[in-house]
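Q: My labmate handed me this sequence with no annotations at all. I'd like to see what the chain might look like in three dimensions before we decide whether it's worth expressing. Could you predict it?
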Amino acid sequence: MDINPYQSPQSKVEDPSKDLMRWFADAGERAERKVDSNGGEYLSKGEKLIYELWLLETVLQKGEVSLYFATRGLQHWRHCVASIPHTIPSFLRFAERVDSMLRFDRDPTGRGTVASVANGAEADRLYRELRNSIVSELRDVKTA
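A: Here is what I predict for the chain of 144 residues:
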């Protein structure tokens, strides 16, 4: 058996962040099925946390933070932020930064204003940077 001297011994171990994200995806999908069959009012407090952050995650996987505002809207963002406890400080840090980047434009349909993120690339970078911490803190809250 040849040993590659350039291969780190740790590279044989599965990345723990994959397990973390697998947990998050599974928990989010379970919450979504529950919402689809019974409605959101039947989610536990922990399931609601998972569901809100999972919705954000699924939109961000398809696009960027600006897409979240385009598809979910400012009201849903405010609801999401308000539902996250102080025990998930990484998300609160992300949300505070995103809130500072929001801009409000006239709705082309004439129904008021729409929110968008002025510096979407920075918001996306920050989310990628904080993503594992957010999910890890969420799992700690959920299992506590």
